[in-house]
Amino acid sequence: MVQLQSFSGHADADEILRWMSAGPAPEMTYLTHGEPVTADTLRFRVEHELGRSVRVPEHLESVYLDRPR
Fold first, then answer.
1. What is the tally of structural domains in the chain?
2. pTM over 0.85
3. Quick count: other Cβ atoms within 10 Å of Cβ 47?
């Protein structure tokens, strides 16, 4: 899990993909911001352009994360 103190919520999809491609791939990426259709479109792009596993959780869904190894 990464917490960013200065990440702008106004990046477009291309900027987000560029930023994500610069670092190592996590086991799973959770997209938790944005309208459902927009988030699902970004999920598709991340999966197909970066080959990463991505989920868009349902509204009010809880996701339990394992501790880092």
1. 1
2. no
3. 13
